[in-house]
Design brief:
The chain is of the alpha/beta class. The protein is 39% helix and 16% strand. It contains nine helices and ten strands.
Length: 311
């Protein structure tokens, strides 16, 4: 299938782009001139690169129409970092998605896959299903929800297959360094003592390569449409995950649990009900948290040792 991917140089987008190539799809990406494609350097020669910016889609619309993508996977989003979650930039993403949808339709696209977030639901004390009423508490979650509703209605008018994936917490190699797990691993490799919350949160973590597999199967399954949660389907105590990472690096290292207070908006329970995804694809994650964390720690350790050798 001929696919166009936005956000291909990001954490999730890079793993997905690589997997789509491995599965024999023809993949094009929309990439800004200033983007650093280090995450996809190994597959970049196999990709068709459209140089452009989502803020100026008019300048690349002819190239997208000429490409005639059969599926568009829209992962790119402005303001993903926590410090931007309540900034006005969030609303820009809604119009960008609407414009990309229109161009995709003119290009003959038959499948639109958009990427949402568990933030659309707001805090819930139990497993969250797609039928639960959304109640986002941030502009980020509100903009994701608005983009979902807009794209669903627009795709329906255009007779396009519409898929919206609400992504829960993912982890793995090449993640953004500011998130909890990459930051923790880097601190421990540097022999620092991380200051942490009490770690009593229950969080749903899914290895990014398993997430990419589920997304690729959604691309390839013409009968799969609608809203899907994407997570591991299992919530674990955050303290358990942190201690597991510490033990992989050095069991003698200290952890300062309880030194960081919970934020007023702290998510204490995050768990995806993935029944609908399983029924559509017969897919379930392998759920081997230890293996996924070992691969992630090994990736960070290799980069850490490489930097140390170069200094």
């Amino acid at each position: 299938m001929r696919c166009l991917v936005t956000g291909a140089t990001g954490f999730v987008g890079s793993h997905l782009t690589r997997l789509l190539c491995q599965r024999g799809h023809e993949v094009a990406i929309l990439m800004r001139a200033e983007s650093n494609p280090w995450r996809i350097a190994d597959v970049l020669p196999n990709l068709r690169v459209i140089r452009g910016d989502l803020s100026d889609l008019a300048s690349v619309q002819d190239q997208i129409v000429k490409l005639q993508p059969e599926a568009v996977l829209h992962l790119a989003w402005q303001g993903v970092q926590s410090r931007f979650r309540n900034e006005s930039v969030q609303s820009d993403n809604i119009g960008t998605a609407a414009q990309l949808l229109e161009i995709s339709h003119r290009a003959g696209c038959r499948t639109w896959i958009g990427f949402g977030s568990q933030a659309e639901y707001g805090p819930k004390p139990e497993a969250i299903s797609e039928t639960d009423r959304p109640a986002p508490t941030s502009l980020y979650g509100m903009a994701k929800l608005a983009t979902m509703e807009m794209s669903r209605a627009t795709a329906g008018l255009m007779d396009m297959r519409w898929v919206w994936i609400r992504v829960f917490s993912l982890y793995g190699p090449a993640d953004e360094p500011g998130w909890m797990l990459p930051s923790l691993i880097q601190q421990l490799l540097s022999r620092e003592v991380p200051a942490l919350t009490a770690g009593t949160q229950m969080w749903d973590y899914l290895y990014v390569e398993e997430a990419a597999e589920a997304i690729a199967r959604l691309v390839e399954s013409p009968s799969a449409s609608g809203l899907f949660n994407l997570g591991s389907g299992q919530a674990r105590p955050l303290r358990q995950i942190v201690e597991l990472v510490r033990d992989m690096i050095d069991p003698s290292l200290s952890l300062r649990f309880g030194e960081v207070p919970f934020r007023p908006d702290q998510v204490m329970h995050l768990e995806a009900d993935i029944t609908r995804l399983h029924e559509a694809l017969a897919w379930r994650p392998r759920g081997d948290l230890t293996a996924g964390l070992q691969a992630t720690v090994a990736w960070h350790r290799a980069r850490f040792n490489g930097k140390a050798a170069a200094s």
